[in-house]
Amino acid sequence: MTDIYENSADNSARFVLGVVGENPLVCVGVNPSTAIPGKPDRTVSAVMGFASRNGFDSWGMLNLYPQRSTNPRGMHLTSASELKAENERHIAEFINGRQLTLLAAWGELIETRPYLSEMLKGIVSVTDASACEWVSIGDLLRSGHPRHPSRARHDWPLKSFDMRKYLRAIEV
After folding, report:
1. Record's Pfam families (predicted)?
2. pTM for the complete prediction?
3. CA 14 → CA 10, 53, 106, 168, distances in Å?
């Protein structure tokens, strides 16, 4: 297995984090916090657990927006187009044509910034080219959003997630 850590030169953005083997569970969250290789934060620890308990040999962490912030409300008020492009480039290189299982895991935090749903649409266009499968943890929230891993019970199952239906519901 291979550790992966792709970040900006000044470490203000993180694009990819993980330990990747043959069959990774790849989580798509809102934005990166403090996790680095060997030092997972609460979210990454939860993702590692879901991967292990569900038959995946490894895990990866991607985000809708790559700006590091311990609180999503600390993210840019408007998106930086260069960060969006760089994020999508890293995601495309990481997926590299593989049919991966992607964990939709942003919860209601996607509502934190108006541009986050547009970021998701760009990522979906990248992942669709490889026919990746989307899953979520347990039932969706009442709001229709997929659960955030650190706010889900460890014994909840991964369920198929209809990304097309979701994108229509949030009107992207």
Report:
1. DUF1643
2. 0.96
3. 10, 26, 16, 28
